[in-house]
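Bench notes, afternoon.
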Amino acid sequence: MAARLDGVAPLEDGDVEAVSVLAREIWHAHYPGIISVAQIEYMLAQRYDPRVIRAELALPDVWWYKLTLEQRIVAYAALQRDAGGVAMKIDKLYVHPLQQRRGCGGRLIAQAVAAARAWGCRELVLAVNRNNAPAIAAYHKHGFTVREAVVRDIGGGFVMDDYVMVKAV
């Protein structure tokens, strides 16, 4: 019998190290060929150092969620409400490669929709690398459309070359 996914729940302080390790595993499995290993390491340090995650958990307009399989975190998302309260940004949404195409991403998107509605936001917004075809296809499947293409300098000699995608809620 296949293992069953547990529910989506808020990320807790005790989960931070596990998410940091999971992020490293996911990024090194998925992003080579899309961005350089040097950029992967740079972005992991910027976004997934346990101190960074803990600082975000303390912010009033940022929410982290986890999805577990037999009490082990296999996917996570971080949401951030924009200053005007119009949009909820999916800042991070990642699923372990062995758990992809099992509904994990959809469950986290459903959580983002619920959070956006609860906060009175009218849309979900996210940025996805223009060369990340599997993620773009998944977001299209869940009702997102491309709003624009953007290239943003993130420091360290690196840029993010993304599509901004939106979904009405």
